[in-house]
Amino acid sequence: MIAPPPPVPAQRLPFSVLTGFLGSGKTSFLSRVLASPGFMDTAVIINEFGAIGLDHLLLEAVDQDVVELPNGCVCCAVRQDLAQTLYMLLRRLARGEHRPFRRIVLETSGLAEPAPILYTLSADAFLEASLGVDTVVTAIDSVLGASTLERFPEAVAQAASADRLLLTKTDLAPASDALRAQLAALNPLAGLVDAQEGDPAALLFGGAITAIPRARRFATAVHAHGIAAFTMTLRRPMTRLAFAMALGRLAQEHGEDLLRVKGIVAFADRQGGPAAIHAVQHTMYEPRWLPDWPDADRTSRMVFIMRGIAPQRLLDGFVAGDPMLGETPMLGKTAREGMA
């Protein structure tokens, strides 16, 4: 007999994801977060790839409850285990069987991609109602980061999906200008921060709307492994229906390769402030309406992090929804070759 889900918490609990390639310093950073005043009431889930897990042992010095998901990568093989673990934590919290916690952090394996994890949360009605995705933080090794991004598609996907890019090991060597430029081009949406500076807990939680960069109407940055960042601005407001149809069609046809979409968009059929738009793979989240624009730039703009989707396909979908958006831009030779 399947146990009924626990009651939905009175307020959605913040859920943050800490990811990064193997050896990027995730566990060391997480230990600093958990030692921060006011963050002891944090539930921790550790996922490791391999038969013997060690990361949870490295956190034993912190007075914290740690749940381990061994023997698989949470982005694929044990996604159901993740859902079951979250159910278990919330059930124990509701029954008073667990020390009270006000937030949850998942430290992924070094091979995980964040997008399927976020999709897992949104695909479960109870988890979507109980947990609010706060921040996706990706640790980037300042010493080996550039070569890792060149060699491993998992590292590229992790960086491309982040809300914040966390430069680690800067005490050993400062991040090069080339690495910073590489990350800024790969994910123009994310903030780039030094793990050694500021309050580590504030970097992992308390996520805010990241400023969408001002850009040409349709700008592309193509990278290794078929992953590219596209920045699109809209010449005039679309209706909510036309926008939903355009983005929904893209998610339906290419959902597995739609790693992340974020934007600030004003609509023709709604007065007031713009909406913060967020989508992951097949899922479009409910818009969050803002009282006003977060900066002086009042242009509707979005950033698409995608894998193997031709730039023209993205543009055609939105132009089909509203032919007044503008002409088809020229696409450079490099962009076409990079998407092959």
Could you describe the 3D structure shown?
Helix 6 crosses helix 7. The chain is of the alpha/beta class and 340 residues long. The strands form two sheets. Strands 3-2-4-1-5-6-7 form a seven-stranded parallel beta sheet, sandwiched between helices. Strands 8, 9, 10, 11, 12, 13 and 14 form a seven-stranded antiparallel beta sheet that branches. The protein contains twelve helices and 14 strands. Strand 8 and strand 9 (227-233) form a beta hairpin. It folds into two domains: 13-204, P-loop containing nucleotide triphosphate hydrolases (Rossmann fold), CATH 3.40.50; 218-338, 2-Layer Sandwich (Hypothetical Protein Yjia, Chain: A,domain 2). The protein is 32% helix and 24% strand. The protein has helices spanning 26-34, 55-58, 79-95, 114-123, 125-130, 145-151, 153-160, 177-186, 200-204, 240-254, 311-321, 333-338, and strands spanning 13-20, 42-47, 66-69, 103-107, 131-141, 164-168, 191-194, 218-222, 227-233, 258-265, 275-280, 283-284, 288-289, 301-307.
